[in-house]
What we know:
Region (Disordered): 1-23
Subcellular location: Cell projection, Dendrite; Cell projection, Growth cone membrane; Cytoplasmic vesicle, Secretory vesicle, Synaptic vesicle membrane; Early endosome membrane
Number of helices: 1
Main location: other
Shape: elongated
Number of domains: 2
Function: Plays a role in short-term synaptic plasticity in a subset of GABAergic neurons in the brain.
Structural class: alpha+beta
Oligomer: single chain
CATH topology of the largest domain: Porin
Largest sheet: 10 strands, antiparallel
Number of strands: 18
Domain Ig-like: 57-181
Order of helices and strands: EEEEEEEEEEEEEEEEEEH
CATH architecture of the largest domain: Beta Barrel
Amino acid sequence: MLSQHSKLAPRAPGAKGTDPEGPMKTWVARLAPLAPAGCSRMLHGGSSLYCLLLALPALKLITEQADISLTRGAEVNGRCGHNESELQVFWVDRAYTLKLLFVKESHNTSKGPEATWRLSKVQFIYDSSEKTHFKDAVRAGKHTANSHHLSALVTPAGMSYECQAQQSISLASSDPQKTVTMILSAVHIQPFDIISDFVFSEEHKCPVDEREQLEETLPLILGLILGLVIVVTLAIYHIHHKMTANQVQIPRDRSQYKHMG
């Protein structure tokens, strides 16, 4: 038995997609662990914890014929395990199904064993006969799109993954005439090692965000270094000038020396 909670709010202005209940801004999914019969959640040390957290303001799945956004009222399901977790999302009367599979792995490195988790598989099932997004679709019907040898969102174990930048994942569709692309933006997710409900662990930033942050801070760092160099140079000049000013001037003209004897 799985207990799940979801929270959906309006989408940012200008986002595409039809939603009879209003546009979506931020979509948050929380899954509780698999529980024995008669229990809504599995207890860990006397406390009940969610096992997967996802905050996702924008998710789009694009085919050659439609731009499909996750809408209000989506159904959240899934399963959680020690080394494998799966998130399932259904919307528009289950015309669209998105499945995300996460795995946690250990690797031997020069520093010893290190554990990471990653997104290992994406599956998108869509019905092109659904009229909200598809108009006069060719070969209308149910189709499945899958990722191929996927290794995305790689994150050290015990940390959450956060990325503000837009990321694209290409999927291969069962309909050879269609291509499917999943686009994520401003994603924050943690499928393993949840310590406290509603609280993400320390963030692991994606390389794009880290590079953008470096590009923003590098001019400031260079400015501080340049300022420090100028201050040090002025200080050395001031000390040197003060020391030379206090020295006794020795006359160069020998006639200025007093006659001895």
